[in-house]
Amino acid sequence: MNKSETTELKNLISKIMPEVIKLRRAIHKNPELSGQEFETAALIYSTLKEWGLTPKYHLNKTAVSLRIENGKGSTFVLRADTDAIPVQEETGVSFASVNKGVMHACGHDMNTAILLGAVKVLDKIKDKWKGTAHFLFQPSEEKEPGGAIGLIKAGVFPVKADAVFGLHVSSEHKCGQIGIKEGCDYAGVLDFDVTVTGRGGHGATPEKAIDPIVCAASMITQLQTLISREKPSCEPAVLTVGCIHAGTARNIIPDTALFKGTVRTYSDALQNQLMKRIKELTTAIASAAGAKVLVTFNKSYPSGYNNLKLAKMCKDRFKTFFGQSNVIERAAPTMYAEDFAHYQKLVPGLYIYLGAIPSGKKSIEELHSPRFLPDEKAIESGIAAHLLFALTMGQ
């Protein structure tokens, strides 16, 4: 892409920015939880129809897809997630959420508006690319196992596509920057629930009871040794117990205790090893205490993998457009999870980080914070990233 082509693309993006920002704010103001994205999908659908396109509804009208055929060439997919999360907004902006306890604190409003902008520009520059572009506005990314599964099972995702692309706003990079991690990125998730059954009794006579709380506490402590002492030291993994429930009063030993946790790895083999050892360790501790234990597992998001060829092709093109210093080659993968990985299991994929820290600031509130407020100028970079991917695939 030469200088004049870069300038032309930037001008096209600049012209649609007021409309895209208006769409972003409308989405932000009316956030919807996973599986309930009816109004969001309706706005996306009606917008695309107004632009003279032919979108389709899916998944009980919570998802929208669009296909643009433009001659012979590669088939590629651009995807955005549309759901919000259960957080009470505290940003104080004029377009803050009007839905109590629900907020786009993960930036999916930005992701969605960006993809809409990319659709509009790509439809205008059909002379610059060839092939078939699929656009997926996907619900339920935040709800395991993710809305990607629904679109795959419904046959909406084209499993014979040549590539799939997505991005997420990031609180780690400055506005105007793009972060790329080649190869492994985003962890696979294994969730587990452990129910310990003992024998209830009075807190004054614990010897007459089998205390499931003490037993569960021992399990939680010992489970951490699976990470510190059993996994390979060079292979990343995280085991976190995020909640525990037991008892009703300080002087009553309950019959049961329940705790829930998550394991995150990049390796299916290590995930399976840890699953086996969680079962063995909790069973042994329960047996030693005279208690019983029930362990259940759920594999939700798989680990993500950025295709090396795609990453290199796009990285080079991004550097030409954004500038060398604005393309950050990330050294380490993240332990966050993304259902985009379901697509990457089927076709070569690339998922990037979109910098959203405003100019002049060193940081912003983290994702999922009630005060998370990405810079809207990042929308321009996000649209450009989608377009550059499409132009690369449509050569």
Number of strands: 16
Report the β-strand fraction as a percent range.
25-35%
Radius of gyration, in Å, reads 24 Å
Overall morphology: elongated
Give the proportion of residues in helices: 25-40%
> N-to-C terminal Cα separation, in Å?
11 Å
Secondary-structure arrangement, i.e. CATH architecture of the largest domain: 3-Layer(aba) Sandwich
Question: How many domains in all?
Answer: 2
* Sheet with the most strands: spatial strand order: 1-2-4-3-5-16-6-15
For the largest beta-sheet, the strand count, sense and barrel status come to: 8 strands, mixed
CATH superfamily of the largest domain: Zn peptidases
Would you state the CATH class of the largest domain?
Alpha Beta
Overall average pLDDT: 97
Number of helices: 10
- Class by SSE composition: alpha/beta
CATH topology of the largest domain: Aminopeptidase
Pick out the low-confidence regions: none
Helix/strand order: HHEEEHEHEEEEEHHEEEHEEHEHEH
